[in-house]
Design brief:
Arc Repressor Mutant, subunit A, mainly alpha, about 65% helix, globular, 7 helices, single chain
Length: about 150
């Protein structure tokens, strides 16, 4: 039983989350190697497969990535021929990102990735949905708490 205020490493939720995140990300690294994608590139591709033709700013907001992290990812995806980047005519600062034909085709190869991850976690589709719901609630709760602590 965990004692309140315990400073034992094994009692820390943060360490459990950290360890789980590293294990899952490591698995993604192995699985995504077959697609020649890194985990962050995969996240970008997922967002584009869900909704193509996105502004960099929109992608950054959805993926919670700043432009300093997202821009190099997009450059590598562009160099790999998976996405196209075009500046908007009405606003030179805005860049539209779209899937290339190769990027669209890669989706068919990536379709099995979620099943591999679910199998590794020992979760079926319903279990994955429950886990995702719990993680969403956890994230929202922690973000709300952090915002309440932050000075206005």
């Amino acid at each position: 039983m965990t004692e309140n205020g315990s400073l034992r490493l094994d009692d820390q939720l943060c360490f459990g989350l950290y360890s789980a995140s590293r294990a899952v990300t490591s698995l993604y690294r192995v699985v995504l190697a077959e697609l020649d994608l890194t985990y962050p590139q995969y996240l970008v591709m997922l967002a584009l497969w869900e909704q193509d033709h996105r502004l960099v700013k929109e992608l950054g907001a959805e993926l919670n990535l700043d432009s300093g992290t997202l821009s190099p990812l997009l450059k590598r995806l562009h160099a790999a021929g998976l996405v196209e980047r075009n500046r908007q005519e009405d606003d030179e600062r805005a860049v539209m990102v779209s899937l290339s034909d190769a990027g669209k085709a890669l989706r068919d190869k990536a379709v099995g990735v979620p099943n591999v991850i679910g199998d590794a976690m020992g979760l079926d589709a319903a279990g994955l949905a429950r886990m995702r719901g719990e993680l969403d609630r956890l994230t929202a709760s922690v973000n709300a708490y952090r915002e309440a602590l932050s000075p206005a």
